[in-house]
Structures are given as C-alpha cells and as structure tokens.
Design a protein that fits this description.
The complex is a heterodimer of chains A (about 140) and B (about 280). Chain A has helices at about 10-40, 55, 65-75, 80-105, 110-135. Chain A is mainly α. Chain A has one domain (about 10-135). By secondary structure, chain B is mainly alpha-helical. In chain B, strand 1 (about 145-150) and strand 2 (about 155-160) form a beta hairpin. The longest helix of chain B has 27 residues, at about 75-100. Chain B is globular and about 60 Å long. Classes of the chains: A mainly alpha (about 140), B mainly alpha (about 280). At the A-B interface, helix 1, helix 2, helix 4 and helix 5 of A face helix 1, helix 3, helix 4, helix 9 and helix 10 of B.
C-alpha cells in the first residue's frame, strides 16, 4: 500500500492542529480573564451576590450548566457565564483537534486510523452527553 | 476571607505550581490539588475539577508548539487515546462516586501514593534515549506504529517502531484512570508506557505523551463540567495561574541541561505526598 506520508496535505493538517490548539487556549484564557475581571468590577456573579470566599469558591453547583443558559448568560454579560464560555472553548479545543486528525488520516488514506479517531471522538461525546448527566448531583 | 484576596492567592499559588510542575515535567496539577485541599480547605472534587481544566490548557499550549517539529507521533498517540480516554471516564465517575459516598479519604491516599511514585523517574532515568532492537508486535505492524525524526542534538535521523502494543494500551488505560481520578495530567505514567513499555525514543515519548494529555483530560473534564462539579471562579485562577507559570517553567527546563534543578523540588513533592496521605487516613 502506498501512503502519502509527509505530503503537503499532511503538513497543512498538522499546521491546522497547531493553530487550533494555540488559538483555542488563547481565546479561552481571554474569556476566563474577562469574566473574572467583571466579577470583581461588578461584585456579583450574574446569578447571585458574590458573598464570602467560601460561598463563591467552594460552592458546588449554583451556576447553570447547559447550552441555552450559557448563551443567555453570555448575551447578558454575566461574569459566571463568560468564564464558563472560556471553559467550554477550552474543553472544545482537544475535541476539535481530534476532528481535524480524522481529516488528516482520511487524506493519508489510513482508514484504520479514521476509525480509531472516530472511536476516540465517540468516547469523548459519550462522556459529555451520556455519562455526565448520569453522575450529575 | 475576602473573595478577591482568595482569588489572588489561588492565582499566585497556581502560578508557582505551574513553574515547579513544568520544571519537573510533572505538570501543575500535582501541586495545585494538594495546595487547594490541604491549605485552603477546598473540597477534593472541586480542586480536582479546577486542576483538570488547567491540564487541558498547559497540554494544548505545549502541544501546539511540538506538533510542528515532527517528533510527535500522531498515529501512536491517537491509537493509545482509545485507552486513556476510556480510563479517564472511569476515573472521573469513580472520584465523583467516592466523594458522594463520603469516601474522599481514598482519593487523598491515592493522590499521595501517585505523588511518591511520580518522583521515582526523576531519581533514576528510566527508558533509553534511543532504544534499539525493538521487534514490532502484530498490532504495531498492522497499524504501522512507527516513524522517524531528525535529532538535532545527536545530528542523526532516528527510525523507530513500537513494540508491545497491548502493554502500552494497558498502562495508558491506568494513566487515564489516574488522570480522571485525581485531576492531573498523569504524564509520567504516559511517558513510561511509551518509552519503557513500547520502547520508543525518549523525545518521541515525551512529546507524544504531552499531545495525549489534553484529549485524555477532556474526557474527564466533560464529565466534571457538565455534571456541575466545576466551580468557574475556582477553575479561573487555577487555569490562568498554571498556564502563565508553565511558560517560564518550560523555558527554564529547556535551558538547564542536567536534571539537578529537578531534584531540588523533590522534597516539596514528598512533603505534599505525606500531607495528602495523612489527610486521607
């Protein structure tokens, strides 16, 4: 079998992986920093008053999780929602890397690796959308 | 404590953890979790959730640089990520279950044991820089788990082929489990699976391991985040601090040739390990 190793296509995908990782982390950092700054400027999380350090940092839950509260919260510039968006961008960064890898392997015609990558993507999605709701408090 | 004071304290501690963690090649998580739980009294589950977020950030940041140098082996990494992500899911579910059953002592003890074990590779170098005589196993042959790179320091082209893939998968599953359970990157164990287990060159092992850490951490972070176990305002200073600390830390590491600087911090890790064990028992 002839593989197209170190072809231009592969180099392009590797560059894309590097860019996604780099800008994913930068965007996430910027959003998390902005949300934190707004928290202390406004003195409230957007959902409840800031309270003491214990109430703010050691509270489990209390902040809505999910896509629609996230979008509404960001639209309303709620500090907690902006930090959350940063965390979601960060979480999406490795997932995006896996998706690009799938295209890379397809380009190289390594179909066994397209299947392996699809399996990893499947495990990631399963963990988020099947396992997480099961262990939610 | 005033929330702003607390935030800045965590930010500063995470920054130091990022420097020391990347200098030792262990990552910031192993230092930040004991600090948050023992010194600031944060519950283990929230500390683990905040730490694992920082693991994604540092791993992705470093991998973005390494992937272009051509040493990272994407195929071997992706193949083994099946094992690490599966292990991470089990680890995250386990740590949540233990916390809900008020068995957090088990998590503390496991953390202490893993900390002590992670010091061992720093005392004695395991694996070889350029292993020789590795015969590929069936999986390695079929999936072509091999590669080559140009070693600038040694001025040679290095060809390599992975061996003992099932052993590699098994150790990687355990590495994923520990990563999900304790909120750390578990890089030391991943490197062990690659260089000692599958006999890959040291440079390939360290860059490929780092590349895998982010995806592994994403598998457990998804569970912690969507399950509601991540406090955004705790995760924020931990992530920003560790990430900012890892930049000067890794630059310092690249400049120091010998491993003496790593050994300076071994007592710190041992003290943290003992604290975690005492806390758990």
């Amino acid at each position: 079998m002839e593989y197209r190793d170190s072809a231009e296509g592969e180099a392009g995908f590797k560059a894309a992986i590097g860019l996604v990782l780099r800008y994913g982390v930068i965007a996430s950092f910027a959003l998390v920093a902005l949300g934190s700054l707004l928290l202390f400027l406004e003195g409230q999380t957007g959902y409840r008053p800031m309270g003491t350090a214990e109430q703010l940092f050691d509270a489990q839950g209390g902040f809505p999780v999910g896509l629609s509260p996230l979008i509404q919260g960001v639209a309303a510039a709620k500090p907690a929602a902006i930090v959350d968006l940063g965390l979601v961008v960060l979480l999406a960064t490795p997932v995006a890397r896996v998706v690009i890898s799938m295209f890379l392997f397809a380009e190289e015609r390594r179909y066994a690796f397209v299947a392996i990558t699809a399996a990893v993507l499947g495990i990631l999605l399963l963990s988020m959308f099947v396992v997480a709701p099961l262990v939610s408090p | 404590m005033d929330p702003l004071e607390f935030f800045l304290l965590v930010l500063a501690a995470a920054f130091l953890a990022g420097i020391v963690g990347s200098l030792m090649g262990l990552g910031g998580g192993v230092i930040v979790v004991p600090f948050l739980t023992i010194f600031l009294g944060v519950s283990p589950l929230l500390a683990i959730g905040a730490s694992i977020v920082s693991v994604i950030a540092t791993s992705s940041g470093a991998a973005s640089v390494y992937v272009k140098d051509g040493i990272t082996n994407l195929r071997i990494g992706m193949f083994l990520e099946i094992a690490t992500t599966t292990g991470a899911v089990v680890g995250a579910v386990l740590t949540i279950s233990l916390a809900r059953a008020n068995l957090e002592g088990v998590v503390y003890v496991a953390f202490g044991v893993v900390l002590i074990l992670s010091v061992l590779p720093l005392l004695r170098k395991l694996g070889e820089e350029l292993p020789s005589g590795a015969t590929p196993d069936g999986i390695s042959k079929r999936l072509e788990l091999r590669g080559e790179y140009y070693d600038k320091a040694l001025n040679v082209r290095v060809d390599y082929e992975a061996t003992r893939s099932p052993l590699g998968l098994a150790i990687m599953w355990a590495a994923g489990l520990i990563s999900g359970l304790l909120g750390i990157g578990s890089g030391a164990l991943k490197v062990l699976a690659l260089d000692v287990g599958m006999k890959l060159p040291m440079k390939v092992s360290s860059t490929t391991s780092n590349f895998m850490i982010g995806v592994t951490a994403a598998a457990s972070t998804g569970i912690f985040y969507l399950g509601g176990y991540i406090n955004p305002f705790l995760a924020a200073p931990v992530m920003m601090g560790v990430l900012m600390g890892s930049v000067p830390g890794s630059q310092l590491l690249a400049r120091t040739k010998n491993s003496s600087i790593r050994k300076v911090f071994i007592p710190v890790i041992v003290i943290l390990a003992v604290e975690m064990l005492v806390h758990g028992v």
